[in-house]
Specification:
The complex is a heterodimer. Chain A has helices at residues 2-29, 34-39, 45-55, 61-73, 87-122, 127-141, 144-158, 174-208, 211-218, 223-261, 266-275, 279-307, 309-314. By secondary structure, chain A is mostly helical. In chain A, α5 (87-122) runs antiparallel to α10, α10 (223-261) runs parallel beside α11 and α10 (223-261) runs antiparallel to α12. The N and C termini of chain A lie close together (9 Å). By secondary structure, chain B is mainly α. Chain B is 75% helix and 0% strand. The longest helix of chain B has 37 residues, at 173-209. Classes of the chains: A mainly alpha, B mainly alpha.
Chain lengths: 315, 273
């Protein structure tokens, strides 16, 4: 097991290094000098040079790359060009919206998909199965931002149960915050729940035909008991893979959904920073999100090995 | 039976919009470049079957021209993914275990590890928002999908007798890959291509919704949805037409892909019915 974790850990590190180089490289290509952009068109040449020196932009790209990476390792993401505040603070503030949003959506998606997928698989071929599969086909095809707009129309504008957007802040109480995140989380979760339910169903159907299931039934377990004790555990590998992948979809999807609901999360921060040429914010937020995704995928790999001991030996 | 239903329904749903896109090159009900403020935000009528938008443009005409943008971007992006991914996959399978195989495998893992939409946003932000950059951004993430699929399936083909026969008859690796492996993968690639096409339509819609896709005045479905958002309480029909266009096209392509897979691979049919 230790050996397995170590191999996975080394590939995690390599992925992180390459990811950081790619992100830094892309940002380097962006035309326009942030210092000139900040000072406007009437700025004097020497003022721009002074600001460049102050921001550390006069150093070579390689020196700046290492400064950026070593800063991030110690939790220092640099200073925003536009707001002159530490990027770490800006990110921390926004993370309290984006992270709960993605986690609630993930929880919703799992809570919906598991029972629905299990139901469809155990009633394979029935009307229930056909109806469920029809709905999931539709769920996969609906763009989440459009679904979000429709929900705003129904639940915010017509029924007035929720506000159409914005975030009151967690200081107004947990309930107010959760209420503001409800519609965004549902619209994020719907397509993911549809995908997950389909994966759950087909993974479960694969195991239902296995010999051990027949043995379990022969020993006197009911279908329900056999599914819970034997089939589900074996169906978990593909399901876990998809849950891991979904986390990255949810993070990226949150960027779009935050725009629909005007939530001041990481997604809004990226778009603002891009339009203001606040490149240090852009690269730090993107790197943070990529880091989160890579670490989650690593955790999923470790979870496999815990669920399925056969995988430990393969590595 | 159900399989063919899926194919027919899927082909019909997605076909409508393909045809609309093609027809839009020669004919649209109304000119969409001239504004007609007096006629703005009209609900659907006999004159304008889908109503008019905030500039008084006919929404049916907008959806038709938008179909062109969405389908063209998605099609070229999947084409890039296939065009690069399939040769990479074939090469990796032909030289299994070599350094090349290892590099291609690692590269695939890396691209997969990135949240695709996030990097697409970064790419379009770097090189400026345009349909071309949206194509590149979506295309890059299609490369590993096709590379992995091709490699995995090609590996099992390389063990078959007819490939050995080709080797004995003196054909080199490249010729075997192109003449014997590739034709045997075509069904699989068509199915995956259909699914990726539908995903690309969704990705294009998301990018143009946040303003990183095709730029105005070129209409696109995502852009139309973004424009309709602020007016959704006054004129909900503005958001309905482009949204349904996306849903029908994607749903149609998915049904088509599922149906084709069942036809090409009867072994899978048992599990799905």
């Amino acid at each position: 097991m230790t050996r397995y974790i170590l191999t996975r850990l080394s590939s995690l590190l390599i992925s992180l290094v390459i990811a950081s180089i790619v992100i830094f490289g892309l940002i380097e290509i962006i035309p326009g000098d942030p210092a000139a952009f900040m000072l406007g068109i009437n700025a004097q040449e020497d003022t721009i040079d002074a600001l460049r020196a102050e921001l550390g932009l006069d150093a070579s790209p390689i020196a700046r790359y290492f400064a950026w990476v070593s800063g991030m390792v110690t939790g220092d993401f640099g200073t925003s060009y536009t707001y002159r505040t530490p990027v770490t603070e800006m990110i921390a503030e926004r993370l309290w919206i984006s992270l709960p949003l993605a986690l609630i959506a993930l929880a919703l998606s799992t809570l919906i998909a598991f029972p629905v997928g299990i139901l469809a698989a155990s009633k394979r071929g029935s009307i229930t199965d056909t109806v469920i599969m029809g709905f999931t086909q539709l769920g996969v095809a609906i763009p989440n931002f459009w679904f979000a707009m429709l929900m705003v129309l129904v639940f915010a504008i017509n029924l007035r149960w929720f506000s159409a957007g914005g975030f009151p802040g967690w200081d107004d109480g947990l309930f107010a915050g959760l209420k503001a995140l409800t519609l965004p989380a549902i619209s994020l979760a719907l397509p993911q729940a549809s995908i997950l339910a389909r994966v759950m169903r087909s993974a479960l159907i694969d195991t239902l035909d296995e010999d051990f299931m027949r043995t379990a039934r022969a020993k006197g377990l009911t279908q329900r008991q056999a599914i819970r004790r034997h089939a589900l555990r074996n169906a978990m590998i593909p399901v876990l893979t998809i849950i891991g992948l979904q986390f990255s979809f949810l993070l990226a999807g949150a960027i779009i959904i935050e725009n629909v609901f005007f939530l001041p999360g990481l997604g809004r921060l990226i778009f603002q920073a891009i339009s203001q040429r606040d490149l240090i914010v852009v690269e730090s937020v993107v790197m943070l999100l990529v880091f989160a995704v890579i670490v989650v995928n690593f955790a999923v790999d470790i979870a496999y090995a815990l669920v399925d001991p056969r995988l430990r030996r393969k590595a | 039976m159900k399989t063919y239903q899926n194919i027919v329904l899927g082909a019909l749903l997605s076909g409508i919009f393909m045809v609309a896109a093609i027809v839009s090159f020669v004919w649209i009900p109304y000119d969409i470049e001239s504004l007609n403020i007096a006629e703005r935000m009209r609900p659907p009528t006999m004159v304008h079957p889908l109503g008019t938008d905030h500039f008084g443009r006919d929404i049916l005409s907008m959806v038709m021209v938008g179909a062109r943008t969405s389908i063209a971007v998605a099609l070229v992006a999947v084409g890039i993914g296939m065009g690069l991914g399939v040769p990479l996959g074939l090469a990796a399978a032909a030289q299994k275990g070599s350094l090349l195989d290892e590099i291609i495998g690692r590269g695939n893992d890396l691209v997969f590890a990135f949240p695709s939409l996030l990097i697409a946003i970064l790419i379009t932000a770097t090189f400026g928002p345009s349909a071309l950059n949206a194509i590149i951004a979506i295309g890059i993430f299609n490369v590993p999908v096709f590379a992995r699929l091709t490699r995995g399936s090609a590996l099992s083909l390389w063990k078959r007798e007819f490939i050995m026969a080709a080797q004995v008859s003196g054909k080199n690796t490249v010729r075997i890959s192109v003449e014997h492996i590739l034709p045997n993968l075509s069904n699989l690639l068509i199915v995956q291509g259909t699914i990726q096409f539908s995903l690309a339509i969704l990705a294009e819609a998301a990018l143009s919704y946040v303003g990183l896709g095709a730029q105005p005045p070129t209409p696109s479905w995502g852009r139309m949805l973004a424009d309709s958002q602020t007016m959704i309480s006054l004129a909900p029909h503005l958001a309905l037409a482009p949204g349904l266009a996306i849903v029908f096209t994607v749903l149609g392509l998915n049904l088509l892909g599922d149906g084709l897979r069942d036809v090409f691979d009867p072994r899978l049919r048992r599990e799905r019915t």
